[in-house]
Amino acid sequence: MADDEVTPEQLTAIAAENEEPELVNYKPPAQKSMKEIQELDKDDESLRKYKHALLGQGNSEADPEVPNVQVTRMSLICETAPDPLVLDLQGDLEAFKKQAFILKEGVEYKIKISFKVNKEIVSGLKYVQQTFRKGIKIDKSDYMVGSYGPRLTEYDFLTVVEEAPTGVFARGNYAIKSKFTDDDKHDHLSWEWNLNIKKDWKD
Predict the structure, then answer these.
(1) Sign of the CA dihedral 48, 53, 154, 180?
(2) Within a 13 Å sphere around the CA of 146, how many CA atoms are in the beta-carbon half?
(3) Per-residue pLDDT, 45
(4) Among 126, 116, 100, which residue's Cα sits nearest to residue 198?
(5) Please, what is the Cα angle at 184 between 25 and 27, to 5 degrees?
(6) pTM here?
(7) What is the mean pLDDT of each run of 10 residues along the chain (203 residues)?
(8) CB 89 within 8 A of CB 71
(9) I need a labelling partner for 172 at 20 to 30 A (CA). Which of 39, 42, 100, 158 fits?
């Protein structure tokens, strides 16, 4: 049976199974700058040391023109993949719509997002992913990444282990819309990419 025989009704049923309840309204606390945090209780030596251990030196060399959060790479981590599966998110994002990651059906994998925080603490970072098949949204995943302070080196976030779908109906192309956002709903980066599920890596 060919991939084209997957019907819109079947895709709608899959989407209904994967639908998640709306999150309760959450209001994040007011954000303070690194300078404000460092100035608070600056005469308390033990608190000063604690904040230094927690926040580090920060990144005083950050270019004021660069965004606070830079998403640099997305990788699919799969032990059985014959080649690295990496997207450079500092390049041409439009090009990703014309290519696809090949993933063998049934394999386990994780998504790794590499990012930098340059100037200020960012609260409640979140990775949001919507998956479409033949134009129908069949899944949405929200991953809480956490809160991070500025530093010179990158951070890496790994999702939980996912399993690629299997079977004749599951094979084919999936269009995915990804977004890296936070509690304040800043869109740090949005990108679209494709995942092609095949019977084998070289099928």
Answers:
(1) negative
(2) 9
(3) 67
(4) 100
(5) 30
(6) 0.74
(7) 58 62 54 56 61 54 82 95 93 91 95 95 95 94 94 95 92 96 94 95 79
(8) yes
(9) 158
